[in-house]
Write a structure and sequence with these properties.
heterodimer; A: mainly alpha; MetI-like fold; B: mainly alpha; 10 helices; 0% strand; flat
């Protein structure tokens, strides 16, 4: 365990970078996905098709391949950004595609009788969305959104393959120096666990409160 | 005109000449995915029994393992297996290490999916079966599992699609599958993003055809029951 504690400050600064990556990618992607998810229900057909296509293409390809694509493709398209921005772009897009499906599912899960009821009360589309559909849809979508965030926090580790320094990259460096894979990799796993597990627990709790026994 | 002829004509002669490599990479990804899917499905079945056990001495260790694996990145688990096993006297090949890590993580996810499917069947059915004089095992086999099976199929399929995509991570330990093939070809040619577009299309074909197959199975099952 000594090796782990000696290198803990280095690993912790890696963990901070991981948290920074997650904060840059996940909330932005989630907001974007919620917007796309709502639009995929209410927008006119061509927009809906475009969103469906986006989700299909993004989700069908590994996030690691998207990171490589962002890394190589943005400069080739004349957009010169740092590797950090490129991989965060990939994280945002991947999060957004998964969240679109979650948000869409949550909006569609609101019983259609309520839509008819709201319409018969004379509500307009936006009023209905704001007062009837979204309050219920948000409640339904919070647990899967949290689970999705855990998945994306874990996915931040893949940026190390492209060459962006964070916790997993730092762990590999330490292992190369110390040849102590068990202590260091298990230690790094514990750091990830400390970040991810509270979010998972919160998701499980909320899921239990929102589901009823029939 | 064959594929490499077409690529030549489009001005991608070098990429065309690399087609056999991509073929090999695709085959490796397919091989990895098939072995890992078999491993994960079985590992999930092994885990779900003790996970649902009423003895805490049995269920708590399994639950801890599942939560640890589910809340840490697969990439680190791959590194742990690949760099760790030789130190405890088990120097396995990169392929075996990759399969072990992928199957171990996805087995844990599948165990939770199996459990959720079983628990989704209402308690009243247990009570009704008991009232009919059935044993615990009989209830499981005749009443609960057939219904749970139908509930499990969609999330089960989704998880396997994620598994197929996750095989791209074993490129980090040097297995020449699709992603690493792409990286190597890029490093040798400088035809950078075209290569990864091709890789992306191949993955998309792989996951979408698998997904389409799953939906067919789903519809078939739904129409039969």
């Amino acid at each position: 365990m000594e090796v782990f504690f000696n290198n803990l400050p280095y690993l912790l600064s890696g963990a901070l970078k991981t948290i920074w990556l997650a904060l840059a990618g996940v909330p932005t992607g989630t907001l974007l996905g919620i917007g796309l998810g709502i639009f995929s229900v209410i927008a006119p057909a061509p927009v809906r098709w475009a969103i469906t296509g986006f989700v299909f293409v993004v989700r069908g390809i590994p996030v690691l391949v998207w990171m490589f694509l962002a890394y190589y493709m943005l400069p080739a398209a004349g957009i010169i950004v740092g590797d950090f921005v490129a991989v965060v772009g990939a994280l945002i897009m991947y999060t957004a595609a998964f969240v679109t499906e979650i948000a869409r599912g949550a909006v569609l899960a609101v019983p259609s009788g309520q839509v008819s009821a709201a319409r018969s009360l004379g509500m307009r589309r936006w009023t209905m969305l704001k007062l009837v559909i979204l309050p219920q849809a948000i409640k339904l979508s919070i647990p899967p959104l949290l689970n999705n965030s855990v998945m994306m926090i874990k996915a931040t580790s893949y940026v190390s393959v492209v060459g962006v320094w964070e916790l997993t990259y730092a762990a590999r460096e330490v292992v190369e120096r110390t040849i102590a894979p068990f202590q260091v990799f298990l230690g790094a796993m514990m750091l990830y666990f400390l970040i991810c597990y509270p979010v998972s627990i919160l998701a499980q709790r909320l899921e239990r409160t929102y589901t009823y026994e029939h | 005109m064959n594929i490499s002829g077409l690529m030549d004509w489009l001005g991608y002669g070098y990429l065309g000449s690399q087609m056999p490599r991509f073929g090999d990479g695709l085959l490796m990804t397919l091989g990895l995915a098939s072995v890992a899917i078999a491993g994960a499905v079985l590992w999930g079945l092994v885990l779900v029994g003790p996970r649902m056990s009423r003895r805490r001495l049995v269920s708590v260790p399994v639950l801890s393992y599942i939560e640890l694996v589910r809340n840490t990145p697969l990439l680190l688990q791959i590194y742990l297996v690949y760099f760790g096993l030789p130190l405890i006297g088990a120097p396995l090949s990169a392929f075996v290490c990759g399969v072990i890590a992928v199957a171990s993580q996805h087995g844990a996810f599948l165990a939770e999916i199996y459990r959720a499917g079983i628990e989704a069947i209402s308690k009243h059915q247990w009570e009704a079966s008991k009232a009919l004089g059935m044993q615990r095992r009989q209830i499981m086999r005749l009443v609960i599992l057939p219904q749970a099976f139908l509930k499990i199929v969609p999330p089960f399929g989704n998880q396997l699609v994620i598994l197929i995509k996750d095989t791209s991570l074993v490129s980090a330990i040097g297995i020449m599958e699709l992603t690493l093939t792409g990286k190597v070809v890029v490093e040798r040619s400088g035809a950078s993003f075209e290569v990864f577009l091709l890789i992306a299309v191949l993955y998309l074909l792989l996951t979408s055809s698998f997904g389409a197959g799953l939906r067919m199975v789903e519809n078939l099952l739904r129409s039969r029951y």
